[in-house]
Structure formats: structure tokens, C-alpha cells
Amino acid sequence: MANIEIERKFLPECLPENLSEYEVHQIEQGYLCTDPVVRIRRSDETCYLTYKARGLLAREEYNLPLSADAYAHLKTKADGRIIEKKRYLIPLDDRLTVELDIFGGDLAPLILAEIEFSSEEEARDFVPPAWLGKDVTYDRHYHNSEMSRADYRL
Fold this sequence. Notes:
Elements: E1 2-11, E2 23-34, E3 37-43, E4 46-52, E5 58-66, H1 68-75, E6 79-91, E7 97-103, E8 111-116, H2 120-125, E9 134-135, H3 144-147
Antiparallel strand pairs: 1-5, 1-8, 1-9, 2-3, 2-6, 3-4, 4-5, 6-7, 7-8
């Protein structure tokens, strides 16, 4: 089902001291196309294909479940690097959760944080805690689709 993804991205200045207490997922993803974005992802044992329209703060997103075999087949078709990361889910309050991504492979030691919102107004009005660091929502260099490119360098 299609929905609108509304998120802000940050470069955390430090990690929470109790990181091991939060839910964590191992993610691997590759890109079949970056304009528009067509991505395959395996999160733990769940696989899916995602289409994302253009946009920075808000964009249309559609997810389609994939079997493990379909994911493995499509992974061989991905352009550029396969991105590996651990995603920690850190609740901020009763509505908002920080998705803290710690990248592996040649993107290490990059750490990004994303927060999804229910509206653009909520996203714009959000005052982040200091530990989230610099807001990079409008910097395409921090889109995973850009980071998947073979020539991408931190």
C-alpha cells in the first residue's frame, strides 16, 4: 500500500549510553534504480521491494513483500554497493521513535538518525534533542540511494 513518508534525518553527535537496551534489526539493502528509487531490503528475515518518489522531507512510498529467493535474485541486479546497517529503535515519546542506523562495510563509521512524522507540520515543528546533532534532511548525500552509488565517498 502506498503512503507518504515524512521524515527528518540527523547526524548524531553521540550514541545513547544504553543502546543495547533498544530493539535492533540487521538491515541489508540494494538499489535497482535511484531515480526514481526502487530498493530491495532484508530486515532480519523479512524482505521487500520499495518504490520511493522524489522528495526530501516528504515523498510517496510503496512497499511490496518479497520472498527470500526473490530478494536473493534481485540482489544480484543491484547497482552499486549493498548497504549494511544495524537499526536501533529508540522511543522519544509516546508517538515518535528515532531509527538510529549504524552503517557497516565501507560506509562505517557513518551513523544516521531518522524520525518519521505523521504530517509535514509536525516534522517542521519538531525540536530535536541535542544528541541528534546536525539536521541533514535536505542534503541528498545522506539518502541511502545516494550512498549506494559505487563512487560515493563520505
